[in-house]
Amino acid sequence: MQTERVIIEVALNENQMRSANPHIPYSTEEIAEAAQQCYDAGAAVVHFHGRDAVTGQPLMSDPETSLAGYKAITERTPLIAYPTYGAMARVLDYYDIGEPAPQRFTHFVQAEAEGIEFEIGPVDLGTYDGNAFPSPDQGAKVPINAMLLNTGVDQQWITRFWQERNVKMTFALFDTRHVQNLRNILDWGLSGEGTLVTKLFLGGFGASTERETAFLVHFLSEMRALLPQMPSWMPVIAGGEQFSLGAMSVALGGHMRVGLGDHHYAEMGAPTNAALVERAV
Fold it and tell me: Which residue from 82, 77, 66 is spatially nearest to 33, judged by alpha carbons?
């Protein structure tokens, strides 16, 4: 039985392009306005990527853009907001990998220098190949040729960064093996205080299929087996509709994430982020 309020998180834009849905927010003002509408509709948390205001080019490694978006959202709403992090480095002349944590977290470090405080801090676990998740604008048609590395050194740096600042961490798991990774962080004493907060990435294109359902059940089974207490959790569907598994999540005691950043919903007439929140509510 669900005994707590359901948290609705919104992925406002990620790397999604307006060719898929004209309501994707690019500029700081558009991001803040979309966040305000989502709050009015019932959202509690928003996640966003810094984008070029005209072209939509991802600016994940640009501190000014990310911090401008964060300040605009938090000045207008009581939402919990957090930007992405990530700077990629080219290796072997053709392959991109995530840079070490201190470089990827440049905008969070700069925020501290400007006196900006965050309520939650993202921590990605393990390593995952970009080809495991669809490119927002091209689906699975072309290889992504990128890998996000989260080594033990990176994870200790990131978790200590948030722990030293007394910021609540939210852990992103891209594979069921990452549950063991989370247990290691817990055993190191680097998970922070209170209930663990997790996001379970389940891929896409088949979000309502038996396969994705089985993947979610496996995630929950691994967490029950490996963690001393069940964390707070929500499934994340990249590249597919989010409502089928979102409904299952709520029924099983989890929370829900929606948003145009994860899926464009062109098949539903290209709705706004706020319309997705209204449907989730």
Answer: 77
Pairwise CA distance, residues 190 & 192, whole Å: 6
Which tokens is 120 given? Answer: 């939650």
Q: What angle do helix axes 210-226 and 243-251 make, rounded to 10 degrees?
A: 40
Q: Collect all residues with Cβ–Cβ distance below 8 Å to 49 and sequence separation of at least 6.
A: 12, 13, 14, 15, 58, 59, 60, 83, 84, 261
Distance, in Å, from the CA atom of 268 to the CA atom of 24, rounded to the nearest integer, reads: 15
Angle at 273 between CA 271 and CA 274, to 5 degrees: 95
The tens place of each residue's pLDDT in the chain, 281 residues long, gives 445 789 999 999 998 999 999 999 999 999 999 999 999 999 999 999 999 999 998 887 788 999 999 999 999 999 999 998 877 778 887 777 778 899 889 889 999 888 899 999 999 998 877 665 555 444 444 455 767 788 889 999 999 999 999 999 999 999 999 999 999 999 999 998 899 999 999 875 555 567 788 889 999 999 999 999 999 999 998 888 899 889 999 999 999 999 999 999 999 999 999 999 999 99
pTM: 0.91
Alpha-carbon distance 254 to 139, whole Å? 28
d(CA 205, CA 226): 29
Residue 188, phi-psi category: left (phi > 0), alpha (psi -120 to 50), beta (remainder): alpha
Contact yes or no for 219/176 (Cβ under 8 A): yes
